[in-house]
């Protein structure tokens, strides 16, 4: 009978942690969201020298609290799911793991900036929470439009890169190292800066011919910025008539994939029976 | 009988101040528009050291004249409306109040730059005037398109912020404080400057790897600029077939909300009888 | 009989100068186009100190030749048209006059840079030539789309200006003169530079709060760039189904307005009989 | 019979080099693609002083290997095609030739940077390979949209140039050489930098009037960026309903033009009988 109760407990915790269709599940997600945002702000503030100097202890303790809470959550996620391996090696499983590890490592590896900065990956956890919330259902059409224009955007980016390499080489020949165009990769970097209309100004053409070519590059960049926009606009408009699928806020207790239909009795991914509670 | 006359007077002044469907009301709005623009220009010129030095007296007197006129208008607005409290605590009521107060405060708090700059909020008053004028009816479709794409734009901005934080942290690790990326928030600032193609150039990547990542960020920024445009274009196009509602230029004398139908006999908001004059 | 011959001559020259439906008229336009481009290049080169130094004589003589040719053309335009006054005070009449005058004035007013630069207005003459050429007929739809979205674009620009003034004032308060934000107009200038994603970097926020606000301004700018694009896209798409009017390349010899229908017998503007030649 | 065998060999090699509808042809294209990318990376690395210094020998040998392979391929292309002259003087024929020559020339002309940089043109060869691959068929619609909006984009660019010249001259008069606007061409360069929202900041307006005009230019630039986008969006959307033509991956062994229909028996360009193998 104890096993039965344990199973029931596991199912309940699973519902709270993975699902959003119960009040407790929604509250849990909200708290987790707050914790993630709070921990990311701590990571950012820690990197500011004068803030870290003054509030070092407070930031350090906060970080430990957050890390321990994330660790607890990770353990609960692993033990309440039927197939833990699938979760552990899934994208969000790895992200959850990486959210907890850096702080523990910092005990052994003192001052390793690289590893502490890894904690920023906690931000990715937000996507999981949002995925389950209704509100993102709004952007389904957007994602569909981006998906169907993926190949075209890729072709476009590919053309931009080839154009940048050729024009960058031309500028390297015209301006030369004495005007800051020290190498072809550096000139290509400048060309991308110009073509995308970023324009830092750390390097800028000095010779009249270089400025003339730069003018041409800018006008080209101005013209081709229209292309990805045109693609997405058209795809998005054509997709607007199609309906949106609903999000039920439930997750399969077996494989943690989303349950998309509210009247589903079995998981669409693993066939697990959903409604035995 | 005096009360009757007073009531009639109140109604007439109300019509002039709040409405635009009478010649006097239109003239009043035009004068107010001129006064607002004039007062904002004074605030701006006052902040230019060499202009303030030379024309200090003229600017000061102008400011006092404008403040007194705005005060008079505010008093008239309060006494001619049936429910003054509703007006006083409405958005435009607060803006109207904040337009007059700073100058009076400057008598007691000498040299408080913060408070004098508050006067720039007078600009917001322009929106009230324009709201009542036909001409803005033109932009109804635009506002509708923005409204219906609000959530999507928000989701998009949210993604941009998350991407910026992650990429900013990557650049902080790659470039480090010695190249100007002094902290994670500062690197995130740089990432937004780059992703939005602003590109000040106050910080720019110095290492080859940093420049390579920056190049990638720029091309990503170039690609995703298409997303909000695509959304607004499609929403706007889909909204173009729908009709526009008319603006009658009248306001309810009781609660000051707009009267949208020219044949309305009662206020749509408070049920006040509109046509007893 | 002499008057008759003179009238015939006038008509012939008129056809060559104003029309493009005869081979001679097309050749004249082509030569004029070349002359305009040539003269603009001369004006530009004259302003470059080291080129002007070396080729001063050549540029000066070229300029005189161009000026005399433009003067001759101007005189011919005046005497071959039936109603010279209408031409002289028309937009292109004034532009034609201003194309010739500066060089003559330079004889009396030595070294007046302002007046010589006026010659750049000759560029506007290109629009007259192009107006008569078929090729621009292609952009009719574009002009129609711009025309119908004129008011909305204006409303949008108006909002951008108000937002810039308010945000500029906020930045003036936050950053202050010690960080380069010397006055409100200067801060507004910076805000426009940022909002439009130009980003010179001559001024950039130094305080953390200023950088945070700047980040917000950039993301706003990124979002609202979608608005004018969305408007023009939708208007253009909706206009694409409508037909384009043809351009016959003929002009009325009486009032110089375009003849739009190839089978027209009378001028649509002044009723002049067109086909008596 | 030897001639027969030779003809058969020629046809087989032709199929591998020019076509992509056989496994060998696809493998050849893949290898060529890799070789091109590899050789372009070598050209880029060679231009970086400290990399060239350390790995000079390795880069030099790699370059020789690539050059010899490209030379072999060029010779095979010439001898396996029926009309070599047509290939040699075609666009890709010239590009293939220019991909091999610079390294041989470097034996005679020591240190000629200009000629070695020519090798970057090898990048253009990628387009030939991609042209034959299915995947680009995806971008057919994009190319069609760009094609049909070509004239309008050109008209737009033309207007941008005229506006830039006029506004550049205005800024030259307003700011003058003492503020960095040394000549009209230089001011025009600045105007394009501003109008396209690149904004290097190497020159920026210093006078209040100049900053005011710059603000106007930026807002104009912000507004007109909508135009090319609107055109491409609308054209692309209108083209989306039309079908895409298929790419069969075959090329005519006589004139090397693409065979577009899979059931074609004769070359659409030169009438050569296609299916005698």
Automatic annotation (TrEMBL), chains A, B, C, D:
Q: Topology relative to the membrane, per the entry?
A: Multi-pass membrane protein
Its domain of life reads: Bacteria
Give the record's keywords alphabetically.
Answer: Ion channel, Ion transport, Membrane, Potassium, Potassium channel, Potassium transport, Transmembrane, Transmembrane helix, Transport
The UniProt entry's coiled-coil ranges are: none
Residue ranges of the TM segments = 27-45, 57-76, 153-174, 212-232
Q: Tell me where in this chain the Ion transport domain is found.
A: 26-239
The subcellular localization recorded is: Membrane
Protein name (record): Ion transporter
Report the source organism. Answer: Arenibacter antarcticus
